[in-house]
Amino acid sequence: MVHRTEQGVSSTSEEPAWKQRAVERSTKAAKLRAEQRVERFLDAAQSIITEKGTTDFTVQEVVDRSRQSLRSFYQHFDGKHELLLALFEDALRRATDQIRTAAAGRSEPLERLKVAVQLLFELCRPDPAAQRPLFTEFAPQLLISHPAEVRVAHAPLLAQLTELMAEAADAGRLRATTTPRRAAALTMQTVMFVAQSSGVSDDENAHPITADEVWDFCAAGFAAQD
User: Fold this and answer.
1) What is the pLDDT of residues 69-92, one digit of tens each?
2) Cα angle vertex 126, ends 130, 190, to 5°?
3) 3-state SS, one letter per residue, for 154-214
4) Alpha-carbon distance 159 to 163, whole Å?
5) What residues have CB less than 8 Å from 188, skipping those under 6 apart?
6) Does the pTM exceed 0.70?
7) I want to staple 112 with a disulfide (CB 3.0 to 4.6 A). Which of 103, 122, 123, 174 is the partner?
């Protein structure tokens, strides 16, 4: 409500403190319930993926596994694609945390970068035992159909690789003309594409690309010559 003071200056009266507290408490409770419902859908989808070893499942399967309603599902997700995207973003954040932890175990900047590149390759390559279809099935499809969403999902990983690249640059371990962020983006895309393309071959004489080979190839593009 707007009223005028004795000096004729307009001011807006605030709502009572008790009402603000009540609304805030109600909003927090509703947000918490929504987060819990979302987590149940995500957990259900992840368990199905783990069992099947593929992202080939239906929304109804997720709804049944979560013991929630179809209506509730569509209140939080537009469809299966958005659900998979949420799982993919979570998987990338976990991968980024793994890479950060592994790299922190090395003292030399270029060695930290090497660990990061090799681990990223291992996390993204097809491995029937590891069952990572979000990376090997969904990610390649997403890159073609929703490139903007790919950029958002990869942002934490790109930031981590850029940080490692910048540390190596500061230590004089990169070529003088290298731009850390651009080099990180090129490296990330190269490593993930090569990893996702190196499927398990039935040819026993085949020689799959290794993490060492990927590192050697990438490092030749940005590492300073000794």
Assistant:
1) 999 999 999 999 899 999 989 989
2) 130
3) HHHHHHHHHHHHHHHHHCCCECCCCCHHHHHHHHHHHHHHHHHHCCCCCCCCCCCCCHHHH
4) 6
5) 120, 154, 157, 158, 161
6) yes
7) 103
Q: Which amino acid is at 41?
A: F
The span from the CA of 210 to the CA of 220, in Å, is: 16
